[in-house]
Amino acid sequence: MIVVTGATGQLGHLVIKALLKKVPASSIVAAVRNVEKAKDLAASGVQVRHADYSEPASWEAALKGADKVLLISSSEIGQRAKQHRAVIDASKKAGVKLFAYTSVLRADTSPLGLAAEHKETEDYIRASGVPSVLLRHGWYTENYTAGIPGALAHGAVYGCAGNGRISSATRADYAEADAAVLVADNQAGKVYELAGDTAYTLAELAAEIARQSGKNIGYVNLPEAEYKNVLVKVGLPEVVADLLSDSDTGASKGGLFDDGHQLSKVIGRPTTSLATVVAAMIK
To answer: Domain containing 211 — which CATH number?
Structure first.
């Protein structure tokens, strides 16, 4: 039995979709905060169980009978390490044979501020003694292509990544890799640095948007504080704006670049190209 946490989230939903191609639906458990939002998963034959990162007591029942658990990191910045500990403790108590965690690329050395909670979680997993595998995700291409409508409206891509190269891949690429590792044998103790096959700068992203849209789109590199203010002005919560601007600065220091090609090796195909994702968003 494989339990996937955060299963109604964007990544979790895709992981279950990938797992359904590999194992019977009856062997998959979707652990979710809101059971009502998981009706489509239940309809596919997946077991749906209530579990909330903020309710430690909910995890014992959610993980009953689990052989493997995929902890998809919480989205509540500042609360994640504490929330993750509850799932790790419950997994240890349940005697799971493999505990997988979606961390961040090179969490132990990353210049990104968001890496701190991931590293803290990784350390706690190791200390727990639960057999584990770390799935360190690079950046999602969608993190940038979601801003294409704004770029088209304003004639520019804004950021503070400088000339930093970003080896991103799509959520579906990462989800496919997560599922592949969950069903594979002998994964305990492994660490996967997962990232896209090719890298680009934000100036190159702007050029690709311009090429496909036929509009004049440039890249405007701002100081981190100014970029954060831009994000807040367009409606993002301050905590999210802070994370994105800090991550751009981390990218300028090489924090989102990787050329190890582990992701494409795990999924057995090239990762989805930037041009493909840009095309889908423009359409």
So the answer is: 3.90.25.10
